Amino acid sequence: MAEVTTTNLELQIKNAAGKAKVVRVPEPSLGLDRVTTEKAAQDLIEANIFVDDSGDPYVTNVGARYVKRTVDEIYNVENEPAV
Predict the structure, then answer these.
(1) Which domain holds residue 39?
(2) What is the CATH number of the domain that holds 23?
(3) 19 SS3 class
(4) What is the C-alpha separation between 64 and 13, in angstroms, rounded?
(5) CA distance 60 to 10
(6) 57 torsion bin: left (phi>0), alpha (psi -120 to 50), beta (else)
(7) Per residue in 51-69, pLDDT tens?
(8) Domain for residue 7, yes or no?
(9) pTM for the structure as a whole
(10) 54: in domain
């Protein structure tokens, strides 16, 4: 079976109470630097589009990282031809 690898950019932010949130960007450009990812996270924070269950906004940029996931499927009956 085919091996499939996906990459996400994770921007990590927190609210004033320290509750963390991860914003995932699928298949980002590779080789992004700290300045670029910090600005992206800060722009998200300033847009006030992410709030916790209490309605409090996320206000602190914590970090950014690439996360790669590799799936090597052994079988999947839904992908097999009908008999």
Answers:
(1) 1-67
(2) 3.10.20
(3) coil
(4) 9
(5) 14
(6) beta
(7) 988 898 999 999 999 999 9
(8) yes
(9) 0.81
(10) yes
